[in-house]
Amino acid sequence: MSVKTKTISEKEGPHAALPRTAHVRSGRPVHVPAGTTRVVAALLRKELLVELRTLESVPGMSLFAVTTFVVFHFALNQSSVSGDEAAGILWVTLLFAAMLGVNRLFVADEDQGGFDAFLLAPVDRSAMLLAKALALLAYLLVLELVAVPAFGLLLLGPSLGQALPDLLVVLVLADVGIAVIGTLVAALAVRTRARDLLGPLLALPLLVPVVIGGARATSPLFGLNHADSPPARWLLTLGLYDLVFGLIAYAVFDFLLED
Amino acid sequence: MADRGVSTIVSGPIAADTESIEGEPALRLEGLARHYGEREALSDVSLSLSAGQTLVVFGPNGAGKTTLLRVLATLLRPHAGGVRVLGKSLPDEAWAVRGRIGLLGHEPLLYRELSARENLRFHARLHGVGEERVEELLGAVNMENRAKEPLRTLSRGMVQRVAIARAVLHDPELLLLDEPRANLDPAASELVEPLIGAASRRTRVISSHDPSGGLSEADLVLGLRDGRPALLREAADVDPGEIAELYR
Known about the structure:
The complex is a heterodimer. Chain A has nine helices and two strands.
């Protein structure tokens, strides 16, 4: 029996830098250890394929957001909203719509053995965090592609067009935070019996700063004079929050997957 | 049955082992215990299995067979005792044996919305295996013609064949097989024999309810009852009646 040894060099640590012994049998080629980038790409591709086939998350999230705007439209008894009020409605709606995606994020993996299959592979566990966060980020961007124009049409008084470039920056910054925190919480909740309840219960308090930052940064964009840009300190707050939770998620994600 | 080496049969503390060709048994358990809350799923399991040999585990439902396989697969932590798999100690060195183990459990570990080919390609990427191996295995389990169809549209036997291809995709040294021929018709069972049967020449741990079929494959037999070893002996010395007794 011939034995060859290959080392994964992409990331240090027990989960990645495996002094892996590839077992050669019947003249078959030795495996090439899967680098983290390749694994993230494979996981993300799988994630998007499954969503494309099942349409379990994004359509529900988008429909929820549009329906909520319609409800607000009638409940507020106003023809339009602006400023703080508009920003608050937009962010609270986006947050609750995002929770639908967060709750579904790991369900297929838990129910169909994807977790076990992933844990059996000699790959960096953080690859799943990154792939899931990227998938959730993609879902949020598609959600906003539907929800923001609907919001502009149904509720927003000032024109959306002028606010759009700055709004995009705020949306992306907040989405990164929602994606990271949502992935972390979803991984924690999915293995519990009360996953549908636990997900939002854990995520919403952690996401309050994102909503505050998003709403404060968006509010000037929805002012009647269109003149203001988003305050830098709120953009910075969102960026820092993303960074802090990104690091926390990276540090603890392995433990959430293990027994 | 493997023709090299003889498993050391152990009850109680682990004894001196017949060493595998690489100097250490493929499996070495010493007082392994695992519990779920208050319930003991495994208790005081000790044995040693040489490389290339087959351990067949018998026992009624809930006896701890699946838990044993999941501990060996590094998916569950042992709560007490020593576990060495392929020369590495679990759970501390679990990372070093992942990728060298193939697990075929009750669940196929495949995504229902993806096709057989998409599923296998996904697993191939996780294990750093080339796509030609996927095609080779689709052929080996006779699934080329249905390889594009979502798994949810396939019969359970077909899904089991794809699951077997998935389990051996990365050419693992150790195969953990939980009732591997469940849902397979005789022809399919014969088809997968080179992949998971004795001909594969891998070290195997098989959970089975079939005394005659299981015994014919075994080098070593472990009978579990309520998580405890009730029978641990070389297969040649085991009477099928003793296995039937486990289920009474």
